[in-house]
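forwarding from the other thread:

> can someone predict this with 2-acetamido-2-deoxy-beta-D-glucopyranose?

sure thing
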Amino acid sequence: MLTATLFSLFLLAGAQPLAQSLTVEPVKDCSELPNYNPKARIAGPWTINVDGCRNGTSSHCSIERFSTSADTTRQFGDEGFLNGLITITSQKENIKTQLRCNGNEGINQIEAHIPYGSGDLAWHPVGINHHPATGRLVWGREFEPVQFYRHSVQGARAEGIFLGSNGQTQWFIHSSGPDVSFVDYKPYWIPRLVIPDMVMNAQESKAFMRIDGS
Ligand SMILES: *[C@@H]1O[C@H](CO)[C@@H](O)[C@H](O)[C@H]1NC(C)=O
């Protein structure tokens, strides 16, 4: 336990220089995102990919550029699937989950195309399960809004558009272990947004979540 804690502190300390030079600027409207359709007021759909992943002190992550997928977290008898989380595929060819920005009704709502109810795909709002123990990107339960950001590194605008919340775009990612997804019965990775008081676990990698092609 002590070893694990010290290891986490070491990882966090090692990441500081990168964090300090990075500033983020929110993308205020769906219309500023890729594949925006002004008639539908929707941008996307796109997958979101693991970007700049760092595994411990090395930069090698097996899941760099792997895309979003999904898992349902509960089944209520006949009512079917009512909530779940956005995940990362464990293999490039596994079933991917698309997201979009819906600008109708004056709000910029991020939605995901996920199995709902009987299991048919439907667009549902997603957001951050805002607790230091989770930080997961979920639907069908209480959440804080997510939005997109542009990065500047040492004052210079960087490429890419990144998913985050409350000015934070850094995520921790860990494996589902033996758990498989209800969507494709394959293992997956779980991204969780860094929120205040969250502790990075020793087996977690750090990454950003970038709109594919942005
Ligand atoms: C990080 O490294 C560990 C140990 O080599 C490995 O088991 C794990 O799959 C790696 N994680 C990622 C995201 O590549």
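Helices lie at 2-21. thats all i got for now
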